[in-house]
Amino acid sequence: MERTEAQALLRDAERLRRRARGDRHASSVPLLVFGGLTVLSAPLLLPRLFPWGDVFWLLAGPAGFLVTGWWYRRQQTRSGIGEGRGSWTVAGVSMLLALALLPVVWIAPLPIVGAGLLVLATLQRNRYLAVWAAVLGLLGGLERFFVLSNRLYDLADWLGWFQQPRGQELLVDLGSSIVFAALGGLLLAAGLVALRRERAGR
Amino acid sequence: MITQRQPAHPTTNLDDVVHQRARLGILTVLGEARRVDFPYLKSLLQLTDGNLGRHIEVLAAEGLVTVTKGYQGRRPRTWVEITKLGRGALAAEMAALKQLLQRYEQPPTRRPRG
User: Fold this and answer.
1) Is the Cβ–Cβ distance between A114 and A133 less than 8 Å?
2) Interface probe, candidates A19, A81, A124, A127, chain B, greatest B C-beta count within 10 A
3) Which of B64, B79, B81, B85 has the smallest count of CB within 10 Å of its CB?
4) Is A17 in contact with B40 (Cβ distance < 8 A)?
5) Which residues pair with A163 in a beta bridge?
6) Residue B93's Cα: distance from chain center in Å?
7) Alpha-carbon distance A87 to A116, whole Å?
8) Residue A86, phi then psi, degrees to nearest 5
9) CA A161 → CA A143, A152, A164, A179, distances in Å?
10) Nearest-CA neighbor of A120 among A88, A73, A97?
C-alpha cells in the first residue's frame, strides 16, 4: 500500500468524523444548556431574595442532562444522526437516582454534574467538552465552599471597597452570584465557539 | 544460526472488509454518531442507493453493523448502527494505517554486516 493512499484514507476518515461531529452538535448543545443553567443559577444564589436557591442544582443538574438527551433525540429524528456513545438520558436518570439514594451528593451537586459530563465526553472522545466539564465541576465544587468568592472579597478589600457604606454587605451577598455568572458566561462563550466551528465544518 | 524475527508489516493488520474506502467511511461516521439513517449516510458519502446498500450488506454480514428498518409515521426509515465488533475493527484499521505511515516516515535502518 502506498504512503499517499494511507494518508488519503486517514485524511478522509478525519474529515468525515469532523463532519459527523459537527452535524450532531457534539460540543455546542451540552455547553449551551449547562452554560445557560449556570447563568440562571447566579441570581438564585442571592440569599435575601431566594433562601432556597441552594436546591437549584439538585433539579437543574438532572434536568440539564435530560434536556440535552431530548434535543439529541429530536435531532436524530430530524437529521438522521445519532447522539454518539453514551446516553444523556441515562446520565440524567443516574444523577436523579444518586441524589435520591445518596443525600451526601446534595452538599456539592456541581462536581457530580461535571463528572457526568466528563464521562460522556470521554466516551465520545471529545476533548473540548471534557475540558469544560472539568472546569464546571471543579470551579462549581470550589465555589460551593465559597473558595472563589472569598478571593473576590480579598480583592475588594485590597481595593478598599469594604470601607464604603454598605459595600461589605453588598459584596457578601453578591460573591457567589458573580462567580456563577462568570462561569456560566464562560461556558456559553465556549458553546458559541463550538457552534461556530461545527457550522464551519459542514 | 540465530535469525532475528522481523515485526509483522502493518499491512498485514489491514482488514479487506474495513479497508475499502466507502466502508471505512461508513464505519467512521458510525463510530462518531453510533446510529445514523440511510439518507444521511448517502448524502455524506455521496453514494448511490445500490452502492451504499451493498457496502452496508457486507459490513452487516461481518457483524460490524446492524440494520434496523422501521417507520416514522408513514415514512419508512432504515437505521444503521455500529456494533462492538465494528468499533474494534475501526480502531484496528486506524491503528494499522497510522503504523504504516509511521513506518514510511522512519529513516531506513542499516542491516548489520556479516
Assistant:
1) yes
2) A81
3) B85
4) no
5) none
6) 6
7) 10
8) 80, 165
9) 21, 11, 6, 18
10) A88
Helix crossing, A28-44 with A127-144: angle to 10°?
Answer: 10
Please answer yes or no on whether A81 and B36 come within 8 Å at the CB atom. Answer: yes
Rg (C-alpha) for chain A, rounded Å, is 20
Predicted local confidence at residue B29, as pLDDT: 96
d(CA B53, CA B67): 10
Q: Which of B24, B31, B81 sits opposite A9 (nearest CB)?
A: B24
Per-chain mean pLDDT for chain B:
86
Q: Which residue has the cell 458566561?
A: A185
**Residues 6 or more apart in contact with residue A146 via CB below 8 angstroms:** A175, A176
- The per-residue pLDDT for range A108-162, each reduced to its tens digit, is 888 999 999 999 999 999 999 999 999 999 999 888 888 888 888 888 888 777 6
Separation of alpha carbons A42 and A21, rounded Å: 31
Q: A102 in helix, strand or coil? A: coil
Tell me the ipTM for this assembly: 0.81
Q: Write the pLDDT tens digit of every residue in B61-107.
A: 999 999 999 888 888 899 999 999 999 999 999 999 998 888 877 76
Burial state string for B72-95 with b = 16 or more CB within 10 A and e = fewer than 16: eeeeeebbbebbeebbebbeebbe
| Cell numbers placing B21 | 474506502
Contacts of A81 in chain B (CB under 8 A): 33, 36-37, 40
A93: distance to nearest CA of chain B, Å? 21
d(CA A9, CA A132): 31
SS3 content of chain A, % helix, strand, coil (to 5): 80, 0, 15
C-alpha cell at A6: 494511507
Confidence of residue B111 (pLDDT cuts 50, 70, 90): low
Q: All 3 cell numbers of residue A16?
A: 468525515
Query: Does the pLDDT of residue A91 top 60, yes or no?
Result: yes
- Name the band, by pLDDT with cuts 50, 70 and 90, for residue A65: very high
Which residue, among A107, A169, A125, has the nearest Cα to A26 in the 3D structure? A125
